Amino acid sequence: MGLGDLLLVALVPVLKVLIITAVGLFLALDRIDLLGSTARHHLNNIVYYVFNPALVASYLAETITLERLLQLWFMPVNILLTFVIGSMLAWLLNKIVRTPQHLRGLVVGCCSAGNLGNLLLIIIPAVCNESNSPFGDPSLCTSLGNAYVSLSMSIGAIYIWTYVYIIMRVSMSNGVKSSPGENSGNTMESSTEPLLCSADAQMPLEDPLQKVHVPVGRMIAFVQQIKVLLTGETNLKVLFAPTTIAAAIGFTIGMVPLLRHALIGDSAPLEVIESSIYLVGEACIPAMTLIVGANLLRGLRSSGVGALTVLGIIVVRYIALPLIGIGIVKAAHMLGLVGSDPLYQFILMLQFALPPAMSIGTICQLFEAGESECSIILMWSYAMAAFSLTLWSTFFMWMVA
Description:
Elements: H1 3-27, H2 37-63, H3 66-71, H4 74-97, H5 101-112, H6 118-128, H7 138-173, H8 215-230, H9 242-255, H10 257-263, H11 271-281, H12 284-301, H13 307-334, H14 342-350, H15 359-367, H16 371-400
């Protein structure tokens, strides 16, 4: 596979994302006003409660079986490592650039959660269908690739809507406005009231300990907010998001033969149900991308995120994480934890080099906090991804071929 072909394979999916993002921005213009704040709020709820769960459930049910899940057991571990290592690097970045409290969760989310779904759904089939692809027969490559990507997308969604969701909620709930001149260019006035359900409003948005301007007081306040989230004082929907429930359903259908034969396949008696869910799920990716583009308009007008913060996230996602990922995947292969399938190794490495997940923008939209900052971060991250993904894809293929 030549460098020119690889360049097109890597650029096309990123360009598709950027084009749809531009459409979302256009629809949010005041003269058009099809994706104003109210429309974005309703569309975002549809993505959260309907589109994303349908996509995850249908893909898992169709491609994951018990035998295949046992073979791919290292992938959830690999994805967890991307989140944990990304969070550690984000913590260091927050310390260096002195990120405002209400944006620290956003930085953690962008550094830890990669786009493990829609980009891979475009990249992997494109790579497999190349005539000189290093991964062999196109049909077999596509079949295996869909299974790998489905598991990647579902596990990533579970981590995002539990681990990252909680961190961002705590950060945005504890956010305080800086005094004039403090952290200039890095703050904005944001609403931090959660939008998911009225029961969530019982969670205290202002803790008295926030007034204690010492590190110990801030730490105690943070721990108390974590305890509130993990106890019965908050709605369980915070921890059991619709996507998490949908992933459990998809796993169950895929791994239980009776359910699989009833729902999956052209001859299945209930195939119409699965195909309908799949059809609804297909709307998730364009809808989520349109929301990001619509939020970008607000970010272009007034953004409180600093250039150093954006640069730091790009360094973490496109330099530090891919280098660490190479070491982890190669070490796992040497220890016998990962098989010799080059496509599997390629996807494991690529999981460390992806741009931030678009679900981060969905979470910001749900909280109505950090939307403009998130849009600017995603804009620059995806602009750089056009070059970064091309270079890393070339290098990863060279390593596994």
